[in-house]
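Feature request, filed as a ticket because there's no other form

It would be nice if the structure record came with a short human-readable summary line next to the tokens. Right now we just get the raw output. Example of a typical job, pasted below so the devs can see what we mean:
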Amino acid sequence: MADSKHSFISYSVKSYSSEEMIERSKSFYKWAEKRRSVRDFSSKSVPKEVMENILMTASSAPSGAHKQPWTFCLISNAKLKSRIRELAEEEERKSYEGRMSEAWLKDLEPLGTDAVKEFIDIAPWIVIVMKRPYEFTEDGGKHKNYYVPESVGLASGFLLMAIHNAGLVALTHTPSPMNFIAKALERPENERPFLLIPVGYAAEDAQVPELTRKSNSDVIEYYD
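Raw output as currently delivered:
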């Protein structure tokens, strides 16, 4: 039973028979398995309300001490997107031309990636996921957040599934270093860029690499 010194509410969730659970988990897996990272976007508009619902779904993720250490910057402004693309490509060129090891570049070859990031201009929305290592207190001090990378990673996973659920596509982009994003958006010093995610419809001629995901024997260790 919960400590009476704290405020708690009753909670219940619908349960299912074993057969129903198997069917539901299988169908959800087959649906989720169709999600892919897409680089070919349509410029077709997506309602702002859809994006707000997606981001609030992401914000329902668990977090350390329930601090919710994230901010989602939602960008549709064409001029700002172009500026972010310019800065991102500048960093990407440095990475492809010297920062990345030969092994890294070889691993990227099957994906067909390069320093050109036209999807930042084309996709109707860009989401910048910001992590917040600390918060400012009323007296000007700082209060640490907990398990920030883990918490923001969980929220980002929820975000990708919510995008997929809406019939949209996304790409997780991590130009490194990403400090230029915080400066371009004039974000406070307690926010650090975590992911840049273009969101929209797939282009009619969109293509993705033919990939094979690891099997259950590769990713699951059983301790029966």
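Something like this underneath would help us a lot:
The chain has one domain: 37-202.
The beta strands are 70-75, 125-131, 134-136, 142-144, 169-170, 192-200.
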